[in-house]
Amino acid sequence: MQATVKWLDGAMFVGESGSGHTVVMDGPEDLGGRNHAVRPMEMLLLGTGGCSIYDVLSMLRKSRQAVTDCRVELQAERADAVPAVFTRINMHFVVTGHSLKESQVQRAVELSAEKYCSASIMLGAAGVEITHSLEIVAADAPQTQ
Q1: Rounded to whole angstroms, how far apart are CA atoms 24 and 15?
Q2: For this UniProt entry, which residues form the secretion signal (predicted)?
Q3: Chain centroid offset of residue 119 CA
Q4: What dotted CATH number matches 40-138?
Q5: How far is C-alpha 101 from the geometric centre of its chain's CA atoms?
Q6: 90 to 16, 45, 52, 73, 121: CA distances (angstroms)
Q7: What is the pLDDT of residues 69-121, one digit of tens each?
Q8: Backbone region of residue 22 per phi and psi (left: phi > 0; alpha: psi in -120 to 50; beta: other values)
Q9: Which residue ranges does the chain devote to CATH 2.20.25.10?
Q10: pTM of the entire structure?
Q11: DSSP class of residue 44?
Q12: Alpha carbon distance 98, 69 (integer Å)
């Protein structure tokens, strides 16, 4: 896997993945940025959520669960001192579908956490406390946010 990150100006950077996709990152105005894009640590958190939700959806499809919507809400805490690493992350999965089996959803989340999600497993190995929770919503039930 390869990637390149190039400085644009101030605290703004553009990253290009080995597959040719680009993403802009920026910092807050008080640190020379213009606050026009996601922060690098936010990108790390988003990538971790993306890695895990991909696993969960893949497993739910394989187990023929009728998923109509899925999201993972991430709450992270960082150390107060430099380096301000993540110390805790909670991943709350909200899975919507028809007649979903809670045991299947729970198992998919557990397998992602314990076996498949490279990003969260790597962060956990580095000392980040990662917790998971889930909520199942019937597809015909009113949505709350």
Answers
A1: 6
A2: none
A3: 9
A4: 3.30.300.20
A5: 23
A6: 28, 11, 12, 8, 13
A7: 999 999 999 999 999 999 999 999 999 999 999 999 999 999 999 999 999 99
A8: beta
A9: 1-38
A10: 0.90
A11: H
A12: 10
Show the CA angle centred on residue 37, arms to residues 31 and 41, nearest 5°: 70
CA neighbor of 93 nearest in space, from 113, 77, 79, 119? 113
Helix (H) or strand (E) holding 66: strand 66-78
Decide: residue 134, CB within 10 A, 0-12 exposed, 13-18 middle, 19+ buried: middle
List the CATH code of the domain at 1-38. 2.20.25.10
Give per-residue pLDDT as tens, 60-75. 999 999 999 999 999 9
With beta carbons less than 8 A apart as the criterion, state whether 1 and 18 touch: yes
Cα separation, 106 vs 51, whole angstroms: 17
The amino acid occupying position 110 is E
Alpha carbons 104 and 63: distance in angstroms, whole number: 8
Q: Which of 68, 76, 84 is nearest to 143 (CA)?
A: 68
